[in-house]
Amino acid sequence: MSRKSTRHMVADYLTAANIPGIGAVYASPPKISGTKDAFANIPTGTPSGSVIYVELPEDKEIRSGFGGPVSGKKTITHGLHLHLLFRSNQPAAEDAMDDHDDIHEALLALIRADRTLGSTVASPYPIFQAGEGLAGITSGTGFPKISGTGATHIWTTIAFDAVEEITS
Fold it and tell me: What CA–CA distance (Å, rounded) separates 162 from 157?
């Protein structure tokens, strides 16, 4: 699976889940992303919305050559980051943080729900393990910031490894 197909497969998996509060999912950050993206596909009047960008900052390949030059296995580990850009028009920042945490928990539940991230049918080299093992899943959330319009903005990164194994 290429880096490109991995990013797109993860974005498709997240989009298909229809998690409430996620307006758009991108396989990579677009040149311009605005408030409309955070509230796209979300019912009108919903106070909070978010955008997710999939990033693949690193890959690692390890080959185990048993039995000759072409009969080995290669384990490819993709270090994935999901960037959650959250925006809320809740009057209280505390309520905005609660909305953020609901979306964050829904994302974690989705990663935990399918260790293949939906890749089993879609790829000849499916991800067989995501968010598993010693690395697990890590999250980092920034402190809420209030914009000049009164909106609360929170940026969270969820990081985990997605591993595939191919014949090489």
Answer: 16
User: Can you say how many angstroms the Cα of residue 99 is from the centroid of all Cα atoms in its chain?
Assistant: 18
- Maximal C-alpha separation, the chain: 65
pTM check: above 0.70: yes
Tens digit of each residue's pLDDT (9 = 90 or more) over 139-160: 999 999 999 999 999 999 999 9
State the CATH architecture for 3-167.
Answer: 2-Layer Sandwich (3.30)
Separation in Å, CA 157 to CA 53, 113, 120, 167: 10, 19, 25, 32
- The whole-angstrom separation of Cα 50 and Cα 153 is 9
Alpha-carbon distance of 24 to 48, in angstroms, equals: 13
